[in-house]
Amino acid sequence: MSDTIIIKGKETADKIKERIRLATEKLALSPFNVRPKLAVILVGHNPASEIYVHHKSIQAKAVGIETQIHRLDENVDFDTLLEVIQKLNHDESVNAIILQLPLPLHLKPFTYKAMIAIDSKKDADCFNPKNIGLTFLDRANIVPCTSHGVLQILDQYNVDVLGKHVVIVGASNIVGKPLALELINRNATVTTCNIHTKNIRSITKTADVLVVAIGHAKFFDHTYVNQDCIVIDVGINQLENKSYDPALEQRVIQEGVEAVALELAREQDLTLDQAKETLHNLTRKQFTVGDVDFEDLLGKCAMVSKVPGGVGLLTVANLLHNTLILTLLQKKLNFKDFGLERRYIRDRSDVSHK
């Protein structure tokens, strides 16, 4: 049985964030005196969204980007949401805007209208039709965060998709469709599948690279892949932790992780890091898994990405990178002066984008 390489996104995400940090440090100095600002619109009190926005804010601060969170009531009407978006579009202090999804149930039918209402010049998620169109034409300065994260992970592991058969399961506007565009721009042979695709196993088993993004926990096991396949898991699913120990959680709250972990390490002959990992697994009500049955694929494919710790790290890093790029474009500053370039032009002999 061959070994399976476990794909992680931290190395590339850290490089992107360091590049952003160096650029924002320079931007803050004279004569620029600019600090990029990302506005986040959060509607309602979805726990997963709250955690995600908090996580974004922490990472943004670490690289020198200011976040401004606009919280709207769960029952807000669409016109009010639209007013907030338009206000931010016209606020010159705001360089980038994102609308945290999903929206509450009564606003879901208006999701597309809300997304396209964000000015393309401030569209950090790259959902505006103009920015998607530039991605289609291979002329984009910013690209969709998650789909490009998949390509960055492949680059990190020196996987060249030229001529390769890439199968994408999930044809969403956020991941599947833009990823297919970017792969085509890299001369891959792309097959997209959805819930209506017949005989899906017969398709996925032919893939050199399989990307899954359907939001169904642990759906894809080893029967969907071949031994040489590279599997990229974009799914994020929350499952109930059956090992959750509320009494242990209370101990950690009262005594601190370090003290409880030291005692656990002595009792079970563990290292301190192992004890902390055990505590982490026992004191959370839910845990995150991907669309892939990760353990089942080990030894059954060439590479597989881990959830969490894979593409998701690149999604946040690319969001921050897009915020920086949009800021430079708005201020009409030269990318190269900040250690950056107009990134996504494949044919460098074509200078018409300049």
UniProtKB/TrEMBL annotation:
Domain of life: Bacteria
Binding site for NADP(+): G170, A171, S172, I195, I236
InterPro entries for the chain: Aminoacid_DH-like_N_sf (IPR046346), NAD(P)-bd_dom_sf (IPR036291), THF_DH/CycHdrlase (IPR000672), THF_DH/CycHdrlase_cat_dom (IPR020630), THF_DH/CycHdrlase_NAD-bd_dom (IPR020631)
Metabolic or biological pathway: One-carbon metabolism; tetrahydrofolate interconversion
The keyword ATP-binding belongs to this UniProt entry's keyword annotation: no
GO biological process terms held by the UniProt record: L-histidine biosynthetic process; methionine biosynthetic process; purine nucleotide biosynthetic process; tetrahydrofolate interconversion
Record HAMAP family: THF_DHG_CYH (MF_01576)
Subunit structure and binding partners: Homodimer.
Protein family membership: Belongs to the tetrahydrofolate dehydrogenase/cyclohydrolase family.
Protein name: Bifunctional protein FolD
Upper taxonomic lineage: Bacteria, Pseudomonadati, Pseudomonadota, Gammaproteobacteria, Pasteurellales
Gene: folD
